[in-house]
Batch of 4 targets.
Target 1
Amino acid sequence: MPLKSKIRNFCIIAHIDHGKSTLADRLLEATHTLKQNEMKAQVLDAMDLERERGITIKAHAITMKYHAADGQDYVLNLIDTPGHVDFAYEVSRSLAACEGALLIVDASQGVEAQTISNLYQAIDHNLTIIPVVNKIDLPGAEVDKVKQQIIDLIGCEDSEILLASAKAGKGIEEILTAIIERVPAPQGEDDAPLRALIFDSMYDPYRGAVAYIRIVDGEINPGMKIKFFTTGREFEVDEVGTLRLQKQPADALRVGEVGYCIASVKDVQDTKVGDTITAAVKPATKPLPGYREVKPMVFAGMFPTNNEQYEDLRAALDKLRLNDASLVFEPESSIALGFGFRVGFLGLLHMEIIQERLEREYELDLLSTMPNVEYQVLKTSKEVVVVDNPAELPSRGEIEYIEEPYIRGQIIVPNEYIGNVMKLAQERRGIYKNTSYIDPTRADLTYELPLSEIIFDFYDKLKSTTRGYASFDYEFIDFRRSNLVKLDILINGDRVDALSHIVHSEKAYTWGRKICEKLKELIPRQMFEVAIQAAIGSKIISRESVRAMRKNVTAKCYGGDITRKRKLLEKQKEGKKRMKQLGRVEIPQEAFLAVLKVE
Amino acid sequence: MIASTQPAAVSGKKDVLSTPDTAAIYLHIPFCEQRCSYCDFYTVAKREQAIPDYVDALLTEIDLQQASLFWQQQKYSTIFFGGGTPSLLSVAQVSRIVEALRSAFFISEAAEVTMEANPGTVSRDQLAGYRQAGVNRLSLGVQSFHEDELRQVDRIHSVSDIYKTVDATRAVGFANLSIDLIFALPGQRPSRWRENLHQAVQLAPEHISAYNLTIEDGTPLYRLLTSGKIRPLSEGRARAVYNFSIDFLAAHGYDQYEVSNYAKAGFHSHHNYKYWDGSCYLGLGASAHSFDGQRRFANVGNYVHYMKKLAEGRLPQDFEEWLTPEQKRFEMIFLGLRRSAGLNLAAYRAAFQADFYDEYEVQMEKMLHGEQPLLRLEDGHLRLTRDGLLLCDAVCAEFLA
């Protein structure tokens, strides 16, 4: 059992690709936490998807033992943080479990928006910041410039900034020494009632929900009765321990320690990130601060292409929810797409990940509708309804007004692209707030934007209009009144509920036209003409048509042609498998995401 | 008892061969003087010196197939020499083959024996000889009555060759003549195609096959297409040309009995029908396909390999597929719909113990009704409307599970 004074809890703040995972791997090597043959590149990114996308989706933690230059043995707990804005709350909880943070900045890229927002959060949590300039041996490295950015940002001394190349293994010992010398040892009351912060949780099919915890006060041990503050539910602890490459059971976890707790909890809905675990007998009076119910921001319908897979989809979502407390869903039925679920996500990346996992791990063939945000609608009856599905928006006559979620967005961009960014933000109904400068060449712009305007392709557009230099981060602020209308799409006169969406009235005409054009492009010619219309209420604002096929008949069919021709027709049919039949019309799946592709 | 093989009248939409009980024999003669620019059949140019050995191989194959109980038990009502250019065979070679077939298999005296021939490559004596050998139907690869179009598709004959050859076939007594035409050539103007049709009916053949040009992968035309040197006729133009052809030929007494086939009353091709009504057929020669009701199989395409295998006394098959029940259903449907007679629903029920309408309700709802129906039901048959015929492939694909 380590002495409190010999524990150091820290995390790493870095922008994607600035070398966080590589650095983490080096620390594990240098502390002999992993033997060389146990090293997979980037150990912390455990999911295949994470490794492919080069980002950390879920937070993880690992305990290292380090024999320092002062001759003492230390326990270092690295608590990893997710690398995407969708998971900002999880980041904040990971930060809350630490006393220090390594700030990693790429020597050629400099400070980026996401780094800054996470850094400010870390400073808010009173974390000691250890700045590290990484990738110093790359050809484009501008060490002095980046150092100056960091000095301007956190007001540190030049001498406090460490230089490293995680890839080449340079500067690793210096970083470890700095962690021990600069990061404060944990505080906390040994004899107080147990308070443990859940900063992550995962589902183990054999053992149920596993909470990853940081002990703030008291201690936790097997056999003990514990209670979760938010749910009030009580469980008996089966096992606690520390996180090495595998879980290492321990007789107890005490103040300052980071580890796991298994207590026959059925699913992660009971081990919510940010919640506090206390003792069932003599509980703490107050939970740790900062718990927040994580709310989905983005919603989309998910439908199995084959409606017989509805049950399978439900089972798969249930399973994913075991491991993802932020995933919410409820059954939805669509005239166009049959039975499915309306699923809520933290953001667009979260949505992509869920969809990809459903398709990959559960072999489901899914069709998802265009994602949308949640709207608050005040009806003329003074009733407020929350609408997360455009098809369910009350009729215009019943609506007093609609409110939509707004976010505060922070965009860091080289000066020469400020104009482009401002133009983009304006197109997206952004309200300009502020400009400050990271250094003489880079600006930090603040905008307030409707969330609906950034969930589609804002980030991609931002990247392309700034040649990839801009970085972006955002946080939810509030709901605001907007002049919004529901745009419906009619195919051969029938409203396709899954294609309805809510847009700002000033954009409705242009969007209607562009969506019709896009659908015309996406819907292949069929045996009958296909009429595509966009409408607001009963008013048609745009129309296009896909002309019928004119001739589709192969001339010859004798002898061996029969096999060949049958195969050709089978192929023709195969191409239609991913199409949805609406009346007499076949709509390709991409059509349901057509709006995303509108320029 | 052999079923009557007298040409039965194809009066309107009567399904004359709805109960196939005789089989067909196809012989593939892959040799050509020159390859046509649209052709993707297995053919070889300038290898005529191999013909005698090839004929020997054919005779060996006949011998080997004779040993098959299945083919031995069939009764045959049609023989078809296709190619390639079968008229590169001498009269003596054709005689040997026909005689071998007749001694090996149970072939009706009145069987339809067709031979494909190219205008200008057959003399009057040769034609007389073929007729003597038992050939009673000639299919002439005319393709066009315009010299420039003939050159466009690399045909070796001239327009005058066509008239000479047709006259010769009549003079030697052929009473059943078919001519092949090809339409929708790149850049072909409607008036030129109308002239082709006009010339064709002036010759008064008993049968006309008019094929929309298909630019197949790997053909010289395909290379011209991909290199942007030619552009296919637009779908709209091809539709108009096809529509016009059907109407024009009907007005001149040629009833369309299949997508690309037209005949005067009583002169539809029995052999063609064999492919479409589920009959068995035995294919002989390189690349020839056979069907025994359950299994479709084919010989190796390369004629050298074909001859080598047979010289070793082995059947030269290199492809076979056993039809699944679904494939059988679908073949019956799409081969039925391609014919004017349509799909015989009673025959479908008999073959699959299932009601067609019950099984394909969705498709029927979609295509049988509305402003522009693609299908119609008439006296127990499901048929394509004209609109449906123009979209035959798309309509048929709907019936796949």
Target 2
Amino acid sequence: MLEFLWLIPALPFAGSLVLAFAGRRLSRGGIAAFGVGSVGLSCITAFAVAAGFIGQAPPGHFYVQRLWAWLSVGGFTPEISLYLDALSLVMMLVVTFVGFLIHLYSSEFMIEEEGYGRFFAYMNLFVGSMLTLVLADNLLLLYLGWEGVGLCSYLLIGFWYKDPANGLAARKAFVVTRVGDTAMSIGLFLLFTNLGTLQIQELMRLATERWAVGSGLAVAAAALLLGGALGKSAQLPLQTWLPDAMAGPSPVSALIHAATMVTAGVYLIARTHVIFSLAPVVQEAVAVIGALTLLLAGFSALTQTDIKRVLAYSTISQIGYMFLALGVGAWSAAIFHFMTHAFFKALLFLGAGIVINALHDEHNMFKMGGLRSQVPVTFWTFLVGASSLSALPFVTAGFYSKDLILFETWASPAGSRWLWAAGLLGAFLTSLYTFRMVFVTFYGDAKMQVSRKPGAIMTVPVVILAVLSVLAGFLELPSSLGNVRIITSFLGSALPSETVSPGAAGAGTALMIVASAVSLAGIFAAYLLFFKKNLAADRLAGFVPGRMLHRLWFSGWGFDWLYDLLFVRPFFWFARSNKDDFSDLVYLGMIWLTGRFNNMLSVSQNGKVRFYAAGIAFGAVVVIAIAVFL
Amino acid sequence: MNAVFYLSAFVAVIATIMVITRVNAVHALLYFIVSLLSVAVIFFVLGAPFIAALEVIIYAGAIMVLFVFVIMLLNIGSEAAEKEKQLLSPQAWTGPASLAAVLLGELIYVLVKGGSGAGGIGIIGPRQVGVSLLTKYVIGVELASMLLLAGLVGAYHLGRRYRKERRRTA
Amino acid sequence: MTASVNLDHALILAAALFTLGLLGVLARRNIIFILLSIEVMLNAAGLAFVVAGAKWGETDGQVMFIFILAMAAAEVSVGLALMLRMYHMLKTLDADAAGSMKG
């Protein structure tokens, strides 16, 4: 089955091409058939390949499919070849499966939109690029996919391009991620010049051979790759684009800005974990950045009123958890959390999409309310997703994945109590803002009339994701609860297993109890504040420091303001003052000089034969003089 | 023979000065014929009798007759000489004269400095010239014939009156 | 014929005639005189060729004079035809009047 691997990215690309060229001639049904069908087939192929891989594991637990040589310059011969191991297999399954569900959902969600074909062309292109990224055998091909998903993100955020604000959000996302991408491309140059290849496995092998732990080159390479990951995964300090990226349609937010693309950074770090292991400083930075990001984003999420922005900050925060896990060396835990997060966050975005759609594109959740009885299926699935996000103990997938991360943060030699405490505080914040959203949106009095109820095509993916948001957790159970290790043992062939410092191993149960308590406390606090309408929150916000804090959090800690001040304004100022390009002066000067000479010489063209004869005579005099006297 | 040479040279220079200073074109033409004839004498002295003959027959004869015909065709009245006199102000001469003087000075400097001296002169007769012309320079002769043909065609074309002009004069 | 003529002096004569012709071209405005002056210059050039030929005792100088003669004939025929046309169009022989090619 493994030889069909190339079909998995090829099918969405083919779908994208068909829709791009023939999208105008197809009916909406036809567009949906191509758009959803290509990803569906890709998903089926992915499962078949996965079955083949698991059923009869290839030697060394990896499979390389060489398609063709991309180019050959000097000693540089990157290939278009696909690399399948446990890590890329998990990523590939999540991308294709969640991608397929979201495509299915979109086929109904977007049905009334003008650019139906365009939407699916972009979405298919995205899935294809994402699969290229995940399955790439070398970093150059990975970079191609990396830029491909960035492009699709840009195109889809600005999908409703008639509103200039959406275009602005799209540009912001593109430019901010570009900062990270530039760092990453420099990192690739660095790796290539020093190690002479971009083939990932070869690179990892050479890096361990040639670079000592903590050597300058390893640190630089890891830091530059981290830069790329920070941009793509919206981590501090490049997180500002993600909340604005919510300008795109909800399925886009679900697919690109929650489930798949934003976790590309996590994948990149996991993929090149050897380099990060060689640079402990950078790996520590990954953990610290993750912890900081999850806290900052968590606080910001508390104050948002736009339901999608809450989810956006929540996404940043959850990716912060993954970075925290990567930083402490819990590679598998990060990928596990990526998987569960993909399920429940996609679910939440799709649910939010249904709610927004039902209420005439209303994004402000304080204008919603009482939706529990009006869209019951959505409510229940949303509640499952929210519970999973807030890590409701024992029954949800989010609990197990987050608990694993918290345990590793505590127990890993690279971890620390402070990082654990940050993660714990983040967990409290997560349940607080999640259930704030749930209570405000679905409980209380109905303030608006539901105009459109979701059909079966939209409901089915949501229900499937809800089921997965619960069941996926049972793939990995802590030692005190049955000790199931399907994910970690499966990923063990591709990623190093977690190390647990002696003495901390026994703390697992206690830590789990603490984490559960914190998560429940968050839910309870939300219940008090937003269900019982306890006025404490309003009163707190009424005080001056409280109000200022609220404003600070609402604006995402003022990063936009800061970047505006530091980069955007100086840049605009420079662009304005350099409107008449300095470097053009040379060329303008040449034009001016030529014109001058033209005027001067045209005086000599006076049409008088005698004048010309005098010119010849004068020239003869000068030439003879030079010949005779010099 | 030296005396003949210097006398002829003197006449040639004086006659040429008269050519460029006359106001009446026919007078200038006659002075030019004098100049050509004295140059012909110089050719003879220099041992080129054939060239001397050509100078008289073709230059002084044919080409100058062409000039005379054209001046007659133009039929310029006596008022033209008056107008010509006005154009010949002393200021009009200064610039060209100084330029020409500088050029002459340079040429004489070169010649005096070069100092080729008196060369061995023998008479080179028409036979030798004709043999050289039709053997060594036969291609030049062909080219000259083409040039003359082109001159003929050009002169014919330019001398034709255009229909528009004819209507205007009619 | 004896070879008693100083050839330098003959060349100086050629130079003098040439510069006189140049002076005529530059100073005169009447196109008849300009053409005459050009003839003077051509004749002077021819003289220089013949002198040079005499110096080396070769025929080449005389051959060149014949070529110059042919060229002068062609030049005069075209030049005079042009002059006639100009006189018909402009009703003047002033060379400066024909300035419509001014840049």
Target 3
Amino acid sequence: MTDSIRSMFDEMPEQGGRIYSTEALEQMTGEPEEKLFSFAEYHPEEAERTGYSDYSYWKSVWRIFLKKKFAVAMVILFLAVFVFSFVALAIGKYQYDSLVPDNRQMFISPNGEYWFGTDNIGRDYWCQVWYATQTSIKLAAIVALGECVVGVVLGCLWGYVRKLDRFFTEIYNILYSVPTIIYMTLIALMIGRSFWIMCITLILFHWIYMAKNVRNLVFMYRDREYNLASRCLGTRLGTILSRNILPYLISVIILRLALSIPSTIGYETTLSYLGLGLDVNTPSLGILLRNSRAYFLDYPYLLIFPAAIVSIVTVAFYLAGNAFSDAADPRNHV
Amino acid sequence: MLKYTIKRLLQSLLTVFVVVTIVFLLLRLMPTDYYFTEDELIKLTDEQKDDILQAAGLKDSAFVQLGRFYAAVFRGDLGTSRRIMNGKPVTEVIGDRFGISMRMGCMALIISLLVGIPMGILQARHKDGVFDHFGTAYTIFINAVPRLVSYSLVYILGVRLLRLPAMYSTRQPGVSSILPILCLAMGSIAGYALWMRRYMVDEMTKDYIKLARIKGLTPRGIMFRHVLRNAFVPMAQNLPTTFLLTIGGSLLVERFFSVPGMGPLLTNSINRYDTNVVQILVMLYASMGVMGMFLGDLLMSAFDPRIRLTGKGGESR
């Protein structure tokens, strides 16, 4: 193509994108047809470029997530708290294992020796708070992952296998209609209280909400044409679920995963407050909040430190979860 | 419609039945010592205990006991409390506390409806405005931060700044229930505002609203005649459940402010193994939960004539 024509084409879109016939072009430029057009040579790389788009799912998720400054800041804040909980235990002047009650050291406000002060029986509060932070985060992470795995697997079955629908719906009714706390209380008193019992009971009662979300989505996608085709071609059930349907569920799964962390921490504090959570020897933030209940009107620092950390962790996950699930939704990638 | 209602009622009964049976059988796994009061446990000999258990039919197999329990419930006999209040009928034990919980729950509910729904409406109308941002921050705070922390904040502010009584007392029930009611309402305000705002925003982006605006309807007219009414339909489904559960009392709030309501009764009765009270309480909570869902569906169909619950097994859950 000669340059004069190329410049003409470049201007054309502004003129309403008129299409000229070969004769018109010949007249306008005064050149014969053979000179106007020439065959393009075949280049494999060039051909490749036209059919190629630079789209990658996770890259787009990441790009959109990073745009949400506030959520990113919260994630960084949470990571800082988490990392610092290890540092804090290392640099603290007292070790958690060697704490002894000391009546003379009761209720000392934060100072150079006791950075977070001391509690009602004279133990250093700094190392208790950071130790408890680790326990609470560990508990929440285990429960969230457990809920996620159980919920997704059973939710897929619930949605896909029609015969199981009644069965799972009945389970949902039973778990949903009675406040979880009643079941938790019964279990705490019959089986006992420990870190792992708490993990398992929380997973046992909360997987159903993840499963319900997954089920509704599987229900939507299971009979789409492409799945019908897949089934006709004899694809196995596991492959259909994991390759054809699961990718649609990612944003919902991540949202539930992130939101289950604040809710688990919330449940833990409530149960610990009612005396049904972890046993007193594994301090969690809930246990600390419970212990401070009787004293915090006079010694507010006993409440402020654990409450501030708990709030940072939960709010961070709440906001980051919402932002990430927005980012994970392919409809927002355009 | 009638057929559907009856079917759903039977289904609800079945759910309650299953829950109560599970809990009943779990409770039978506990040592029999717990059927006596603390005094009796020390004074009586083992033979005497055996005789008493035999006479009360507690030595029979769990399933025979289960049958007897349901027969008694069917006759309207809910049994007596053994350990919390020795010999007092369960209905009386629960009745006293239910009154207190219900009064507080109703107050909290009225406040949260009066504040929460207008708040959601205002947020949706002035989306992305200053008020909307404040409201969103509030709902995020309430939803994310553990209730124990937010109650503690209210407690400190209320007691320190406003000089309100820290504990519930029966002598001045009015003033001393301000803080518990506030705490109860705080959470549900956030819930109502969040959902109201979301449903309204969803509704406002729909095509028929665009058409209404093109036709020249006033924004106020569109808001109240169309958006609000349609946005209220999904809200209606959750209303009865929250209503019933608020009345049932919140364990945490009542424990936190030492309110002698339903919440502490539950943990108390489980802690002290008063099986008769536990059974009836579980039955009560389960029926309230199930009834809430049922009424929610009915209310939803009342608000939206397009929703037919009778179609194909009523897949509206």
Target 4
Amino acid sequence: MASIRTVKLTKEYPGGVKGVDDLTLDIVDGEFFALLGPSGSGKTTLLRTIAGLESVTAGQLFIGSRDVTQLDPGRRNVAMVFQDYALFPHMSTADNIAYPLKVKKVHKAQRYATAEETADALSLQGLLGRRPSQLSGGQQQRVALARAVASNPDVFLFDEPLSNLDARLRLEARTFLKQLQRRLGVTTVFVTHDQAEALALADRIAIMDKGRIQQLGTPRDVFRAPANTFVAAFIGSVPMTLIPGTLAGGRFAFGEERLELPDEAATTAAAMPDGTAVTYGARPEYISMSSDSRPGAIAGPVQVVEHLGASLLVSVAFGDQLVQAVVDEDHEPEIGATVYLLPNPRRALLFDAEGTRMADDAPAEAGG
Amino acid sequence: MSASPVAERSTAMSRFDAQPIRHFLGVIGRTVFVAFMLAFFTLPVLWLVFAPFDKTPGLGVSLPEFTIANFRTLFKSSSALSALRNSLILAGGTAALVLVAGSLASYALSRVRIPGRDMLLYVLLLMSSIVTGTAAMVPTFQLVNELHLIDKMLGVVLVIGAGTLPTVIFILKDFMDNIPKSYEESARLFGARPLRILWDVVVPTARSGLAAIAVWAVVQVWGNFLVPYILLRSPDKSPAAVVMYTFYTEGGQPNLRLIAAFALVYSLPVVLVYFFVSRRYGFRFYGGIKR
């Protein structure tokens, strides 16, 4: 068990590209921590740097109280589950799970006993004699996990642990992974590009872009109060609708339309001069749609209707700007019909010209 | 405009008439060609199968007057058996050398980034055809002489091994490149050192490549006449390829009975090795070409 701490960590590739840029981060002992970001955001580089598979250009890295910045990866006592699981194809399940112990020169009988025990705990009974190629994707993933568990590490590192599973299995594996992490209580860092996965699994999420952390917080924080437009657009299974516009007379203006200011930024924004460029953000789940006019609602023609299962995603055109709303499946509008959209002012957000969220009570957390 | 479809159809008709004839001629041509090629490659094999069992083998292929006396004579001569044993030693030694040195070198070249790596490989490959070639035989002889390895089997193993290594490295590097890095990284995180990773993970994963290389190295040595002929002096150290050259009758004629029988015995081990390795590991031979 150990915490992970990075201090001004930088990883620069030859050619000057910074995979990780001056990053300071504290991961608490026992935490389930997600690194979330689009491809090329530096999340995998950060994970591999923690593992020691990438060298550090500048800064320091601590696991527990040990400075491991220059330490050999094999001596950091971390276990990594790779995206392709990296199971040795010529070894049986038992040999794969026992391999870390073999390297540590544990006695043969002892290591197979441990392997069997670990396999039982991960419901791999009866598969010990099989080769990886004879296992399903879900089983392979659990063998990879078992191998990591058997090595008894201070820290787990998972690189896109669920991305190679098909959609149905992924949900199952997700629950399994969370249970396992709770039971073992080992500090776990995992990398994902799937925001739903990060929201579901993690205690805290670091959303990364261009080698820097855009926001660090609990799933609730990053969903409710994204620090900037990047996070706002990235989090949420239906992306947040972001409308560029200006302030006009204590309201938000885009095109011909006017919207009431979001509650949380109303005072701040009202104090700013008219014509200030801002971006209005509202999640489609928090925009209500009606066919009758309501005070404060904006009216436009329905452009697209997408079925999401129990609900519908309706896109309404306001000039060039599309605004989306999630509505109940019973209220499917006609294409082209005029509907009225009203964002919930308690859930709507306002971002300044740089894309940083504006809030009355506290200054928005800037990127770390 | 209105006439053109008709004109088109008539040209199509005449083309249609010519087609079966051309097709027929094509089939005949192909068949004759294939038959010719088949005969060209089958005849020597037929000779190899029939001549050893013939009382009076000639240079042509004929149904044998069956006998196994040729083999009896062959196995009575001690030189034939010791020649086969020598061939086995040379082939085994070279295969071992090439496998160990080749896998170490190709693994390193596959994993370590050095500038001009591919260029180095291609130059080595080019040079290798010169080292064991006839043209370089005099300097090779001098080098081996300086090393006091003349008339020693080690000399032959080193020269043939050196000549085949570049090709081996080139082919093996491709196999090594195809082993996912995550295997090694995973082992590395568990604390395994590079040599251990090579032995536990890389070698087993690349074993079909290694098997192919081993067979190829054995074949290279088995069939090599020039190098052992020049570097080995004592007849009792000569391998089969060289000894076969000494089978003459007292009259100075090639002893075809002995040569035929020996040729069959000589070729069997290579065929057996091929089938064994192919059955056991399955050849997945891609060569050094990037796909």
